[in-house]
Each structure stands twice: as structure tokens, then as C-alpha cells.
Design brief:
With 572 residues, the protein is mostly helical. It contains 18 helices and four strands. GO terms for molecular function: proton channel activity.
């Protein structure tokens, strides 16, 4: 596997070379020894590209299987394979990824004609911003883990201190790499870059898998402590596995700093899983863009900007949903952490979802109907970012749908006439419908071609901004300018077509609704486990496997839906 360089393009390549910047006169073609007998350079390049993707994909698959075997062995046989062994394997992978990222930053990307094209659709600002947000929370999580392990150093190994240190360096380096190079379409060292991207993707997947299993253990420990408290209060505890009694070997001393490290560690754990999943999606897009050539017209295509214009009812309804949801979430958290949690807070929690989910479903259905009536052209241009968005939306929705169907079976088989069971049943059914309708709306919107606004309106806006910046505004003039801005907003809203207006309203409402539905489970609101109905039906361990498979995907689905809905909003 190597790359061959053609310094001057042939006669048949003049059209292609005219579409790239003027200073790029070097084209790098991929070469693979199996296809050295191909007569056409382009055909040899395409076959070598497929072979490089296949080889790097197989490499990533083997790394994932090896790490999964280690993690599974740790779960089922804790004597032979310990958590420290898994940490050592992940540390080795992280160090290898660090070496490759540094080599890419210092070597590959700085080579002549290395980055001739940049994918404008890859790495939008909200995705890169989520990498920084979740990366910062993950760094803070590792700091808490270092502090907690340092206090309990008498009963913990030194690997538990070294692993978070390597994790902090890995998170910082990877976040910098993705922020600055997520749009790159690298044109040199194709196969080595693909292998580096795939190994880094596999490492992030294994970090996510380990985080999910560790989060399971933490939730089980908390649940066991709560059952002990219920037993002291005279209530009958639920069934639980016998091995959970072995978790109290290393207890936190009764000090404030230790409690802070412990609580912060448990609170920030979900952000670590989200960070790993977002990084995997961005690295996959970079892997698809290796060796990709983008036409000059595609590169110069204007990207729509986010403007809060043409929306009134969507922000009002969405803000109301966020405020009410925040109040319900605080009530739930206060009651759930008490010694005697009441069922009333679960009734309020389910009632909030039962009111909000139908509104979201109806809005998504109306938006899909408007998309069908708009007669917009479909965007058929190859776009790895959009293809990945569709796959992630469909795949992540399976987590919530899976949990809902298991919950429906358990509730129908037990006592569906009970008030709490009836609310939980309605919650599960409505959640399935909402996921399906929202996916149809977002995926249909992502495939619609963007029609830019008229140039006259843009020139008028630019003239108004220039005139406003050239004169000084006094106190009286400021009031007049505010009045003019309000009238301009009303004018813009009234001159939008009713179809675009409704699409913007629906998209903005769904964005805010998905944000509050992301916040509630991320920060510890898990009624599917804490109400105890499904847990008593399936058994403690089985229900935990179901919840910890579906819950991280459900949280990731809400976050990824926000990005897709923002795309639909700005293109409406």
C-alpha cells in the first residue's frame, strides 16, 4: 500500500484541475499492489481506495473484538481479568493513538498538497462545540477519579491513578485534533491515515463500552444501598445478585473532599460516554473523506447561517417545555434521593412526558407533510456527513425503542390497570411513536436541497449594517433602532411563506424539547429502573443489561437530534 504522485495532470484531467485552487498542480493517486495491472490510473486509484478502506476497517474490527473480549472477561470472570488489565490495554491503545495524532498534526497535514479540499458539511460548529463541552466534563471526571483514588490509595492500585492521567492527555489532544482538522480531506499517506483514524475510532468505542459497564456497576451499588435503607425502614427489598455485596471493600472516609470527588465522579460519568460517541462519529467522517476530491462548485456552496428570524410560537412553546421539565426534574431528583421516595413524583414525571411527546409527534408529522408539499429538489450529492447522520439517528433510536418494547411487555403481563403502570405503558408507546415520527421528519429535511435567499435582501441587510456602523447612536436613536429592528423582525416573519414559517416553528420547538429530554436522563433521571416494575419482572441483572444498552443510545439520540433539527431549521 503506497501512494504515487503525478506531478502534471493529463489532458483528460483538465476539467477536474480547473475546479481546484490555482496553486494545486499535484494530484496524489492511491496505489495498491493487487491492482498494479489496471490500465487506467483512475480505476487503479478507486480500487486501491476500496482496498485501503477494507484493510483499515478490518484492523478496527480486530481491535474492537480484542477490547470487547477483555471487557467481557472482566465482567464474567473478575479473578482472571481485572479492571486494571482492561485499563492497561486501553492505555496502550491511547498512547498509540496519541503518537499517530501528533504525527498527523506535525507531519502529514503539513506536507505539500496534503489538504487540497475541506468538507464544509463535516464538523459543524455545534458538533465541535459538543466535543469541547463533553471533553471538558470528561477531563473534570478524570480529575475527580485521580483525587478519589489518591485518597483511597491504600486499597487501590497505582494503575487507577495513571489511567486517568493518560485519559486527560488523550482527551485534550483528540479535542484539538478534531476541532482543527475534522473537515480535512487528506490527499497524502492515505492508508496510514485511514489506519490511524480507525484505531482511534476503535479506542473511543472501547472507552464507551467500558464506561457503560462501569456505569452499570455504580448504579447497582447505589441501588443496593437504597435497598439496605428500605430494609431498615421496614420495606421488603427487591431481589439482587449476591456478588453486589462484595463492592464495599474500599469505602470513602467521612470527609468532605472525598464525598465531593465521589459525587462529582458519578455525576459526570454520562458525559464521558457522550464524548466517546461524538468523537467516533467525527472520526468516521474523516475516514470517509480520506482521498476524497470535492468539486469547486461544492466547495463554494454557501452554507446557511443560524438566524433567530421567522419564529415566534416555537421558542415560546419550547421554552415553556424546558422550564416545566426543569421543575419536574428537580422534584424528581429531590424525591428520588430521599429515604422514602413517593410514587407521586413518578406520576408527575410520566404525565409530563405524556403531554410533551404527542405534541412533538404531531409537530414532526405536520413537518413531514409540509416537506412533501414543498416540491423541493432532493440533494443527491454524495455527502458522508449526511449519510452518517442518518445512520446515527436510526441506530441511536433503537436504544429507546428497545427499552420501550421490553417495558410494554412487562407492564402488559403484570398489572396494566394500575395508575402508575398505565402511565408507564402510555409513556413507552408514545416514546416509540415520537422517535419514529421525528426520525422521518429530520431525515427527510436533511435530504432537501437548500435554496439560498435572494441576493437583493442580502445586499439590503449589508447596507443597513454598514449605515448603522458608520453613525453614532444616541439614547433616543437607540430606541428608534430597537423599534426598527422589531418592525424588521415582524416584516421578515410576515413575508416568509407559510410553509417555511411552520417548518421553522416546528424545528425550533423540537430543538428545545430534545434539549430538555437530553438533560433529564443525562443527569440521573432513570424512572425505567427506579420504579421497580420492569426490574421485578425481568430480574435485576437482565433489566440492567437492557437499560444500560438502551439508555446511553437514547441520550446520544437526543443530542444528535438537536444537530439534525438545527440543520433542518437553517435550511427551511
Amino acid at each position: 500500500m503506497s501512494d504515487t504522485k503525478v506531478s502534471k495532470p493529463c489532458r483528460h484531467c483538465k476539467i477536474r484541475s480547473a475546479s481546484v485552487p490555482a496553486d494545486t498542480t499535484t494530484i496524489h493517486y492511491e496505489k495498491f499492489w493487487l491492482y498494479r495491472h489496471c490500465s487506467s490510473v483512475q480505476q487503479r486509484h478507486q480500487q486501491a481506495q476500496k482496498a485501503g478502506q477494507l484493510f483499515s476497517g478490518l484492523l478496527a474490527m480486530n481491535v474492537v473484538f480484542l477490547g470487547s473480549a477483555f471487557i467481557s472477561s472482566m465482567i464474567f470472570n473478575r479473578v482472571a481479568i481485572t479492571l486494571a488489565d482492561v485499563w492497561i490495554l486501553l492505555s496502550i491503545l491511547k498512547v498509540l493513538c496519541l503518537f499517530w495524532i501528533i504525527y498527523y498534526l506535525m507531519g502529514t497535514s503539513r506536507q505539500p498538497h496534503a489538504v487540497l479540499y475541506r468538507d464544509s458539511h463535516a464538523g459543524p460548529i455545534w458538533v465541535r462545540g459538543s466535543v469541547l463541552l463533553f471533553g471538558s466534563c470528561s477531563i473534570l471526571l478524570n480529575v475527580f477519579q485521580i483525587g478519589y483514588s489518591t485518597i483511597l490509595v491504600h486499597c487501590k492500585s497505582r494503575v487507577e491513578i495513571l489511567f486517568p492521567v493518560i485519559g486527560i492527555v488523550f482527551i485534550c489532544t483528540q479535542a484539538y485534533f478534531l476541532w482543527h482538522h475534522s473537515k480535512d480531506c487528506i490527499q497524502v499517506q492515505h492508508n496510514f491515515t485511514r489506519c490511524g483514524l480507525m484505531v482511534t475510532t476503535a479506542t473511543n468505542l472501547l472507552v464507551w463500552l467500558l464506561a457503560v459497564t462501569n456505569d452499570t456497576l455504580h448504579m447497582e451499588i447505589e441501588s443496593q444501598l437504597r435497598e439496605v435503607e428500605q430494609r431498615f425502614a421496614g420495606k421488603a427489598p427487591s431481589s439482587h445478585p449476591h456478588w453486589c455485596n462484595e463492592t464495599a471493600l474500599c469505602t470513602c472516609p467521612n470527609t468532605t473532599i472525598c464525598k465531593i470527588f465521589q459525587k462529582g465522579y458519578l455525576l459526570l460519568y454520562p458525559f464521558n460516554t457522550e464524548y466517546s460517541l461524538v468523537c467516533c462519529s467525527m472520526l468516521y467522517v474523516m475516514w470517509k473523506n480520506v482521498g476524497r476530491r470535492i468539486s469547486h462548485h461544492h466547495n463554494l456552496e454557501t452554507r446557511p447561517r443560524f438566524k433567530l428570524q421567522g419564529v415566534v410560537f416555537g421558542p415560546v412553546l419550547g421554552t415553556s417545555a424546558v422550564i416545566i421539565g426543569a421543575c419536574v426534574f428537580m422534584m424528581y431528583q429531590i424525591q428520588a434521593t430521599s429515604l422514602d421516595p413517593s410514587h407521586q413524583v413518578l406520576v408527575i414525571y410520566y404525565s409530563y412526558y405524556i403531554v410533551l411527546l404527542p405534541l412533538m409527534s404531531v409537530g414532526a408529522v405536520i413537518g413531514t407533510i409540509i416537506h412533501a408539499l414543498e416540491k423541493k429538489e432532493l440533494d443527491t450529492v454524495q455527502n458522508p456527513t449526511r449519510s452518517l447522520d442518518v445512520v446515527l439517528l436510526m441506530g441511536a433510536a433503537l436504544g429507546q425503542i428497545c427499552m420501550s418494547y421490553f417495558s410494554i411487555v412487562a407492564l402488559m403481563a403484570s398489572n396494566p390497570r394500575d395508575l402508575l403502570n398505565s402511565l408507564a405503558l402510555a409513556y413507552s408507546v408514545l416514546m416509540i411513536l415520537q422517535n419514529i415520527t421525528q426520525n422521518v421528519f429530520v431525515i427527510d429535511g436533511l435530504h432537501r436541497r437548500h435554496t439560498p435567499p435572494a441576493k437583493e435582501e442580502d445586499t439590503k441587510e449589508e447596507q443597513n449594517r454598514e449605515a448603522y456602523s458608520q453613525r453614532r447612536v444616541s439614547v433616543l436613536e437607540l430606541g428608534q433602532e430597537i423599534r426598527k429592528a422589531s418592525l424588521s423582525y415582524i416584516h421578515t416573519y410576515s413575508h416568509l411563506s407559510w410553509k417555511r414559517r411552520v417548518l421553522r416553528e416546528i424545528s425550533f420547538f423540537l430543538v428545545l424539547s430534545n434539549i430538555i429530554l437530553w438533560i433529564m436522563p443525562t443527569f440521573g433521571s432513570h424512572p425505567l429502573f427506579e420504579n421497580g416494575m420492569e426490574r421485578s419482572f425481568y430480574g435485576y441483572s437482565t433489566w440492567f443489561v437492557i437499560v444500560n444498552f438502551g439508555l446511553p443510545l437514547a441520550v446520544f439520540y437526543r443530542m444528535h437530534s438537536v444537530g439534525g433539527l438545527l440543520e433542518v431549521y437553517v435550511t427551511a
